[in-house]
UniProtKB/TrEMBL annotation:
Pfam families: OSCP. The lineage of its organism: Eukaryota, Viridiplantae, Streptophyta, Embryophyta, Tracheophyta. One of its GO terms (cellular component) is membrane. F-type ATPases have 2 components, CF(1) - the catalytic core - and CF(0) - the membrane proton channel. CF(1) has five subunits: alpha(3), beta(3), gamma(1), delta(1), epsilon(1). CF(0) has three main subunits: a, b and c. InterPro entries: ATP_synth_OSCP/delta_N_sf, ATPase_OSCP/d_CS, ATPase_OSCP/dsu. This is ATP synthase. It comes from the Eukaryota.
Length: 248
């Protein structure tokens, strides 16, 4: 991935910035607290130029908590700027790239790092990656507020919003071995019938030998557990329960 290569090339700069901050931190006393996120921070306009006409936009689903609030704010800004797909792609690429870098992972979790140091590092990364204005400003906002360590969870919640925006429903299918193409096709068709018209099923396959056989399907906050493991547990409980002879 091109972005991953560009990201790796910025690591020496991050190390240099971190080293300078570490040496200066000796002069500081006390731990640096993470800034408290307030509503004005979340309402910040990520675009550099104001829209000529205010566009009324609502989130397709309500999300709660810190990550949900940030993800919702980013969604609104991206939709208004008509860059939702681009922002989604950039944010997910950024998260995947950070997973491959121990240096940057530690950098994001280090709350003792000064705000200006975090912002300087993120500015360098965003400029090198050539991110769009909204993605750039969002990541800078996280750096300013000491929330970079939450970016993966925010990206996950943001993905929920973009899928809902496109009318997509994620279904997680867990099996012992990967489903053959024909069985996967039949599974998607069955789930599509269950969900109904107007929505599209996006299937994510997971392999878990611990379920012993059968499958587990999760979608729309529903779980259909048809695994051999669950059936065996149910049978075990049934055999352990005392038999009421008088009722026979």
């Amino acid at each position: 991935m091109a972005f991953a290569g560009r990201f790796r090339s910025t690591l020496p700069l991050i190390r240099k910035i971190s080293a300078v901050d570490s040496s200066s931190s000796v002069l500081r006393s006390g731990a640096v607290r993470s800034p408290t996120v307030t509503n004005p921070e979340l309402s910040r306009n990520y675009a550099t130029a104001p829209a000529s006409k205010e566009q009324r936009v609502k989130v397709p689903i309500k999300l709660y908590g810190l990550s949900g609030n940030y993800a919702s704010a980013l969604y609104l800004a991206a939709v208004k700027a008509n860059t939702l797909d681009k922002v989604e792609s950039e944010l997910l690429d950024f998260v995947e790239a950070t997973k491959k870098s121990t240096t940057f992972s530690l950098f994001m979790k280090d709350l003792s790092m000064r705000k200006d140091t975090r912002v300087k590092a993120m500015n360098a990364i965003c400029a090198h990656a050539k991110f769009s204005d909204i993605t750039n400003n969002f990541l800078i906002l996280l750096a300013e507020n000491g929330r970079l360590r939450n970016v993966e969870r925010m990206a996950t919640r943001f993905k929920e919003l973009t899928m809902a925006h496109r009318g997509e429903v994620k279904a997680i299918v867990t099996t012992v071995i990967p489903l053959p193409p024909q069985e996967e096709k039949e599974m998607i068709e069955t789930l599509q019938e269950m969900i109904g018209q107007g929505k599209k099923v996006i299937v994510e396959q997971k392999v878990d030998p611990n379920i012993l056989g059968g499958l587990v399907v999760e979608f729309s906050q529903k779980v259909f557990d048809m695994s051999i493991r669950t059936r065996a547990r149910q049978m075990e409980r049934f055999l352990r329960d005392p038999v009421n002879i008088e009722g026979l």
